[in-house]
Design a protein that fits this description.
Layout lengths: L2 E8 L4 H13 L3 E7 L4 E6 L3 H12 L3 E3 L2 H35 L4 H18 L1 H12 L5 H21 L13 H25 L1 H9 L3 E5 L5 E5 L8 E4 L9 E11 L1 H4 L5 E3 L4 E2 L4 E11 L7 H14 L3 H32 L2 H14 L3 H5 L2 H13 L2 E3 L4 H5 L2 E7 H5 E10 L3 H11 L5 H12 L10 E5 L3 E5 L4 E5 L1 H6 L6 H10 L5 E7 L2 E12 L3 H10 L3 E5 L4 H11 L3 E3 L4 H12 L3 E6 L5 H6 L2 E5 L4 H6 L2 E3 L5 H36 L3 H4 L5 H20 L9
Parallel strand pairs: 13-20, 13-22, 20-21, 22-23, 23-24
Antiparallel strand pairs: 1-3, 1-4, 2-3, 5-6, 5-7, 7-11, 8-9, 8-10, 8-11, 12-24, 14-19, 15-16, 16-17, 17-18, 18-19
């Protein structure tokens, strides 16, 4: 049976590093599939069996990268890697300053030249060693990357300078130029760019790291003797009771069985203020007890907790590549050989048409350095990682980042009604009962656990009506209602059939009043006391507070809303009217919803929002499936997106996030292409005949670094995107 393995990989310097690991991994016998993501420094591999893992890790290490078994080890290695880059940059920068000072102020002599070459050599073997080792492995595996360009550029500059110094007497004056300071500065500027890039890349994954930090490692388990014992979270079992003190994170998903506390869930749901939770309320792993003392009964295993789901979804999503990202990867991989060819042609052109060897070698080196495809390779993955983090912080979990690309083509947003547009909770809409009669009716309903009974009791309490304790005979007639009898009263609550069966009839005026009250599709409960009809209550499934604003905002985003419901025609029509939705369908079975999604897809992309098991086929069939977190596990599994906060505003937030992400990627790709399209000809010297303009290799390395850093900083803007007006 195949094995899925995820590895944290530190030390990758550009997207072609990830391509190299992929290419080499796929050649290993037993590796069925490999997908390495440069942006989040991880790889996902499908292995034939567990024995292949060690071989795979050894091969990755041999390529010059670090493999970490867990996130803590990875973070430690990543920090060490960033620190190492910083130290190498400092050394290269100081050495380049010293070399420049010697060039400018020291008397020209063989000794001075040799001293400068020695310093440049130290820079190459200390600060630049990584570029050369990675370049060697890249060339060996026919995966030409940025390291090849830097190694070729700095190495050729050094060797040419060494040649000039050693054979100065045998060279004409125009070939006696040396690039010793350029060697050191090329390495210094490239390392500076790498340092800033790695820092920014690590910052893009901050939200994920913060989630990992709030994940409790231990819990205080309540023992049979009443004492609490600290145990590892992974040893807890469903049904265990844990104590959560003030200032501690809740260790598991569960329900409060004792006490009360103010719970800060901002990291999971984005809610800024703590919410008071008491006995009977659910709490989630990772949330913080800011004030109070509670005992929590575990209801889900640590692997099934909301926090674990979020971490799993983020990890899975960030390893996947979007089509637009795969295109950039392919371009970046063929770019390097093309650049080498351009560099050779530049050298030959200068020799043939310019007859100047010094200019020829300078321009050839500059082309190699300035053409690094780092910016191109970073354009998509850094934007995606930033987008996923921003979405997760707002309670929008993107399981499949490819859907971000599909949202821009969507024309319809189809909504399930119950539990999606509506609260999925029956409530009393209106009543014509007197206060005295309502008190009796609610007291009788308080003996039942039915959802309608609970709604009536809740309505009475909202009206500040005191309920009586009844001890008479209670009877529940399935599908019709309830009957309560004692020595003083007979109370009948239900439909007309139940009343007629108990010799209670309605007059013409009463029937007319009921018909008018239910004209909008509302349900109705009829009430009789001591064989006399006393009034009715109308029922409805209330719309979510934000539903109307969301529909209006979707319209402003050029998306047409559609309601697909299994409810009665009257009910759906009433809701559609309230929300100003012109297109709706009622009395729909799951297969009807599925077929309607297919039909809508013929006219444009479809986003479907649902929560139930019956919505699962439609969630899969739609271009983009959005599941409510309150819905079934099957629905959440079928959806591409999960709205953690069960807030419909997450739909509009997702559309805004997707549009901003695609715009950001296109901006990044544009600037990366423009940078190369502009700088390569300049580096080759096409402006020299007209303007006398030539770029030195030093300025080429500065421009290359600037392009990568610009792309990364632009992508990081997504982390601060406003998702609401």
């Amino acid at each position: 049976m195949s094995l899925k393995v995820k590895l944290n990989i530190a030390g990758m310097s550009c997207v072609n590093c990830s391509n190299a690991i992929e290419k080499v991994s796929k050649k290993i016998d037993g590796v069925l599939e490999a997908n390495v993501n440069f942006a989040n420094a991880s790889g996902e591999f499908i292995l034939k069996d567990a024995s292949v893992r060690e071989i795979l890790e050894q091969k990755i290490k041999k390529l010059g990268y670090f493999v970490a078994t867990d996130i803590d080890e990875f973070e430690a290695k990543r920090k060490a890697h960033i620190r190492n880059i910083r130290n190498k940059f400092i050394f290269a920068f100081i050495a380049s300053i010293v070399i420049m000072a010697l060039e400018m102020f020291a008397p020209h002599s063989m000794l001075v030249n040799l001293a400068m070459l020695a310093l440049a050599f130290l820079v190459l073997i200390f600060s630049g060693k990584g570029f050369f080792t990675h370049a060697y492995e890249a060339v060996k595996n026919r995966n030409y990357d940025m390291n090849v360009l830097v190694a070729l550029g700095s190495g050729s500059a050094f060797l040419y300078s060494l040649f000039v110094v050693l054979f100065e007497k045998f060279l004409p004056n125009d070939l006696k130029n040396i690039y010793v300071s350029g060697v050191a500065m090329i390495i210094a500027f490239v390392l500076l760019g790498k340092y800033l890039e790695e820092r920014s890349k690590a910052k893009a994954g901050d939200y994920l790291k913060r989630l990992l930090k709030i994940s409790p490692k231990t819990a205080f388990l309540l023992m049979p003797d009443g004492r609490s014992k600290e145990v590892p979270v992974n040893e807890l079992k469903i049904g265990d009771i844990v104590v959560v003190k003030n200032g501690y994170n809740v260790p598991c998903d569960g329900v409060i069985v004792q006490g009360g506390a103010e719970i800060d869930a901002s990291m999971l749901t984005g809610e800024s203020l703590p919410v008071y939770k008491e006995v009977g309320d659910n709490v989630f792993a990772g949330t913080l007890n800011t004030n109070g003392y509670i005992s929590v009964k575990m209801t889900k295993s640590s692997f099934e907790s909301l926090l674990s789901q979020i971490l799993s979804l983020l990890n899975d999503a960030s390893t996947k590549k979007m089509p637009i990202g795969r295109l950039a990867d392919k371009i970046a991989n063929i770019f390097v050989p093309s650049v080498v060819a351009i560099s050779v042609l530049t050298f030959l052109a200068w020799i043939i048409f310019g007859g100047n060897f010094a200019y020829a070698i300078s321009c050839a080196i500059c082309v190699l350095i300035i053409s690094c495809p780092c910016a191109l390779g970073l354009a998509t993955p850094i934007a995606i990682v930033s987008s996923l983090a921003r979405g997760a912080k707002a309670g929008i979990l993107v399981k499949n980042p490819e859907v971000l690309e599909l949202i821009k083509d969507a024309k319809f947003v189809a909504f399930d009604k119950t539990g999606t547009l509506s609260k999925g909770q029956i409530s009393v809409k209106s009543s014509n009962l007197s206060e005295q009669d309502l008190a009796l009716i609610a007291s009788a309903e308080n003996l039942s656990e039915h959802l309608i009974s609970k709604a009536i009791v809740r309505y009475a309490k909202q009206k500040c009506i005191n309920l009586q304790k009844l001890n008479g005979k209670f009877q529940n007639i399935v599908g019709q209602g309830i009957i309560y009898e004692d020595e003083n009263n007979q109370i009948i609550i239900g439909n007309e059939k139940l009343l007629l069966a108990n010799e209670v009839s309605l007059n013409l005026d009463e029937s007319k009043a009921i018909k008018e009250a239910t004209n909008d599709g509302s349900g109705v409960i009829l009430c009789a006391i001591n064989k006399k009809f006393v009034g009715f209550l109308t029922l409805s499934d209330e719309l979510k507070d934000e539903a109307s604003d969301v529909i209006n905002e979707l319209t402003s985003l050029n998306l047409q809303s559609v309601i697909l419901s299994g409810d009665d025609e009257k009910v759906v029509a009433s809701i559609a009217k309230k929300l100003n939705v012109s297109k709706y369908h009622a009395n729909m079975l799951p297969e009807d919803k599925f077929n309607e999604i297919k039909e809508l897809a013929n006219h444009g992309g479809v986003i479907f929002v649902g929560d139930g098991v019956n919505d699962s086929p439609s969630l899969k069939e739609a271009s983009v499936g959005i599941a409510m977190n309150s819905g079934s596990d099957i629905a959440k599994g079928a959806g591409d997106i999960v709205l953690v906060k069960n807030d419909l505003r997450g739909v509009t937030g997702l559309v805004r996030l997707a549009n901003a992400t695609m715009a950001n990627i296109k901006e990044n790709l544009f600037w990366a292409f423009m940078y190369n399209a502009t700088c390569i000809p300049v580096a080759a010297g096409v402006l020299y005949p007209v303007f006398g303009l030539l770029l030195s290799p030093v300025y080429g390395s500065m421009a290359m670094c600037l392009s990568s850093v610009t792309v990364v900083l632009n992508a990081l803007r997504l982390r601060y995107l406003r998702l609401k007006d």
